[in-house]
Amino acid sequence: MSTFAASLILILLAAVAAFLLTNAWPALSMGSAALAEKVSWIKPDQGQSLFQVTGYLIFGTVLISVIALLIATPLSIGIALFISHYAPRRLAAGLGYIIDLLAAVPSVVYGLWGSMVLLPVVQPFYQWLGSTLGWIPLFAPDPTTGDVSPTGRVALSAGIVLAIMIIPIITAVTREVFLQTPKLHEEAALAMGATRWEMIRMAVFPFGRSGIIGATMLGLGRALGETMAIYMILSSGLSFSWNILQSGKHNTIASYIAGQFPEANQTGVSALIAMGLALFVITLLVNMAARWVVSRRSEFSGAN
């Protein structure tokens, strides 16, 4: 039965890849000039061929996802550690329930909350970042206005909302990994005179290292494919800009497909599916890399 289930997963994965490749091939095999005649957003004379636009979107997707991961990972590990080893049992049970509930909130709700509540709150902080740390390319203000985006619809806002969305996923998995730490390991560390934090460093973290990596990569996969929250928050643009406080600079593959799909003709749909194929490959590579890292790290954990 397990062999059948594993084989079915591989068959479904191959079927999805075949579908994407088959439907994307008409756009991939068509020249930029011919494609521009049928697709309005393909503009080779402005540096926007299908491959160039896809490159911009891959950059934006990875940049925003990495921002989200940098924010979410330490917070998630801290929350999971508090629930598993510091909080009283009743409080830990309540927090665990809330974390699981947050993971079930639809992304459109996060998008509405981000656009209506978060953006006005973080805008003064962005102004401070631009005036104080504007010499760093990441926080540089717009050279034409000398200020950061007045709307707050920038890559950093999208990254913050994505971080809030993936925190429940990373926390839930990491919490379960921490709870699986053998009690004998923890008690042995405490018996040697270690403090609780030293016990966590010597017993819990080494045991859960591979699980933390797996949870982080799971959160990254969730961030890479997010659509509606990004679509509702980000002021879209196409560039290879590192300025995360400037609007109209970035977009993601999923958000761009959602915006262009309703008015796309048959050729346009084929071009959008080609972008979906790129996202499929990126997600597959991320999961393969995570699997490789986990398999290497597992031999050094307490799991074996």
From TrEMBL:
Keyword annotations of the record: Cell membrane, Membrane, Phosphate transport, Transmembrane, Transmembrane helix, Transport
ABC transmembrane type-1 domain: residues covered: 58-290
Transmembrane portions of the chain: 53-83, 95-113, 154-174, 269-290
Main location: membrane
Gene3D superfamilies the record matches: MetI-like
Pfam families from the UniProt entry: BPD_transp_1
GO biological process: phosphate ion transport
Localization in the cell: Cell membrane
One Gene Ontology cellular component: plasma membrane
Membrane topology: Multi-pass membrane protein
MF terms (GO), sorted A to Z: phosphate transmembrane transporter activity
Job description of the protein: Part of the binding-protein-dependent transport system for phosphate; probably responsible for the translocation of the substrate across the membrane.
Membership in a protein family: Belongs to the binding-protein-dependent transport system permease family. CysTW subfamily.
Protein name per Swiss-Prot or TrEMBL: Phosphate transport system permease protein
